[in-house]
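Usage example:
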Amino acid sequence: MIWKMVFGALGRQKRKNRLIALTVGLGVSLAAAMLGVMFDVGDKVNQELKSYGANLSVVPRGASMLSELYLLTDEGEGQARDEATPSPAGLAEHFISEADLYKIKMIFWAYNIVDFAPYLTVPVRIGEKKTLLIGTWFQRRLDLPTGEKVETGMTALKSWWRLEGQSGADDDAAGVLVGQRLARELGLQPGDTFNLAAGGQTRIAHVRAVFDSGGPEDERIFAPLALAQSLAGRPGLVERVEVSALTTPENELARRAALNPGSLSRIEWDTWYCTAYISSIAYQIEEILPGTRVKAIRQVAESEGAILGKIQLMMILLTVLTLLCSALAISNLVTAGILERSVEIGLLKALGASNLSVILLFLLELFLVALVGGALGYGAGLGLAQLIGFSVFGVAVDIKPLVIPLTALMVLAVTLLGALPALRALLRLKPTEVLHGK
Amino acid sequence: MRDILEIKAVSKIYGAVVALRDISLTVPQGQWLAIMGPSGSGKTTLMNIIGCLDTPTQGQVLLDGLNLGALSHAGLTAIRRESIGLIFQEFHLIAYLTALENVMVAQYYHSLVDENEALEALARVGLRERAKHLPRQLSGGEQQRVCVARALINHPKLILADEPTGNLDETNENLVMEILSQLRASGSSIIVVTHSQEVAAHADRVVTLEHGRLAQDRLVENSASLANEKILTLSPQRDLGAPLRPNIVE
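Running the assembly step on the lines above writes:
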């Protein structure tokens, strides 16, 4: 009987019900799109920001300070390098074994490690010009003990570099990338060959590409790691690794842990360790590469967190505002509907229908309408999310399954919220006031 | 015969307006009572209180021995559902339900829906063939008869009718009165609020309200025909606890 009443009433108030469905649909479409983008935007923004470089730097514990100094100086770099060269006995403290680097992809948050590249800096001379040659992996394929194969290297890590010529190749032992300022000074073009001198050795190199990084690297040479190791006489060693990792914005817990993980309680420690904070990823890399120190490139990490946080906050605010607007519109429509049907409601009450059963009847009607509106709105929201994805990020937004139950909850919440004033009016309605027609 | 309704010193006050003042009335089971009076005399207020749609400000109402004043809102709703059948002047049928479904609505809120029983109720009011028609496809008289069928479907202890023929022509008025007479004959207790002497003439007893007071309480000796009516009048100041001693008026 109740379904006859529900569908009968739905059929009688077609225009109003269409308006309610449309209102729910509009609200839900915007909210679903926002949620879809919000859940995916973390990865999208992270990937966008990752294209601007690494956010972690792995250095040997014993040599970290000096290596950083070399990278900041332009003049006398070679001399500084020569003076800082450790004795063979101290190599383990000043360098990282290239053979251990695959372990970075085996930490707890391995899937959040987007890319990494090792570096070994060698002071070189090209004619009379002193400069630094930096050996690296351009695009190295790694076979992990888990059977997984990954590709990593500087090409992806420095994706914003503009290259004139061919990209770097690890198997081209003499092929190097020359920074555009150095190339201009030396008159080098892609395809040119030149002599490299370092530590009494001389090698012939050829220019695969001239790159423009927009930074101090434009005065340096990037070469396959093997060439740098050979020139430096440090086979199988690297001095620094840059890691790009997808991270969660830092919070108080992460900041405390970054200062001293030992200060956390067991539960806090577990929470921190199992969350992709930059500090917990750094900690895990230090665990797997003993003797190294992993430092967050704080500015990048914090910017990522801040931007992501702000975008997500904006999405949440927009979603809430949209839903509130929908609830307000629904409220007006439903209240008007209740007023129009006051005699019917009074009659049902007079016939002995409890307040609860009358409310149930009206909510059933409303939820059926909202369900249709919500389903249409969800579909529209998916389209809208893709539109946002393509127009803002240039890629499709991957809608997470979580959006579906959340959308259903939103439909429920908006409908209930919108129905509240009407239900209040319904509860207050007295049959005596509407039935006697006097 | 036991009393189906006892009203003891009931008053209803809305702010400064006294709608009912110290009304006392007893209705034996099976009696057809007509409540008359000019507009504003308190007829509808009294009907609302008897029908558990409103509560008195003072006094006590007992329906089949049950003190309605002791009941909660939900309790009064249950009494309406279980014990009272309501007939309205403006019919109040649900526009999107058929005649049959309108009768079944009362069943639905009472207990279980039984289509055959609802059809029988429609048959009792001569509308079995119109069961699948929507209210807009029925005449005023037919709509009122559906309303009567809805009122009697749950076998209520008391049928309350508010101006049941107020919107009907003479033919349909007679039809509805005939149905109510049949119900009366089958033992139902009926209270009708009316302006119409013709309707009141079908009752066993007529009470008249004036300015919220019980002005007159009279028995109709032969309620089947106005021509042969012998009206039994009572002084409004009579002792309500005393047995009814009618004066015959030719």
